[in-house]
Specification:
The chain has 4 helices and 7 strands; from the N terminus they run H-E-E-E-E-H-E-H-H-E-E. By secondary structure, the protein is of the alpha+beta class. The chain has a 4-stranded antiparallel beta sheet, with helices on one face. Strands 5-7-6 form a 3-stranded antiparallel beta sheet. Helix 2 packs across helix 4 and helix 3 packs across helix 4. The longest helix has 15 residues. It is elongated, with a radius of gyration of 28 Å.
Amino acid sequence: MTTAPPAPSAHRSPTSRLQLVGGRPPGTPVDGRVGYLVFLPADVDPAALMRSHGIRPEGRPLEPASPPVPESEPVPRHERVHTDGAIRIDPARRLVEVDGRELELTYMEFALLAHLVTHPNTVHTRDALISGIWGYGRIGDGRTVDVHIARLRGKLGPAHRGRISTVRRVGYRYVPAHR
C-alpha cells in the first residue's frame, strides 16, 4: 500500500492519530466546496469524531431526483416531432407516419430512422451508426446497418425508399426530398 506525505495544509493534533487533509486548492473560488472521502471503522460515529476535532459536521439528506422540467422550457431536439412533409417522426410517442399511415418499426429501426431524419443530408458511416444507435463500437458489423436500412426502405415504400441514399463504401444519408 502506498501512502502520500501530508499536504502542506494538513492539520494534526499532537495526541491524535487522525489527520485531516484539505483546504482550498489554489485557484478555487472562496465559496467553492471541497469534499472528503474518509473510511472509518463501523463502530465509529463520524459526527462525534468530527466534533472531537473541532469540525462542525455538515450532513444533508440526499435530495430526490431532479424536479420535473417546467412546461415553458423548450423541448430537446431529440424529443421534437420531425417532419419533412411526407415522413413524420414523433420521438416522444415513438411513432412514424408516412403519408399519413403509421409504420410498424422495431426499436432499432425507429432509432435508426429517427437519427437519420434528425440529421438530414449528413453522411453517416456504418461504424458511426453502430456506435451511436446500437451503442457499441465493434468494427465489422456494417452488415447489421445494411440489413436495417434495407428493412426501413421496404417499410417506407417505393415512393419514399429513395430518401435513404447509399454513399458507396462509406454509409448512408437521409435526403428530405427527392431530387
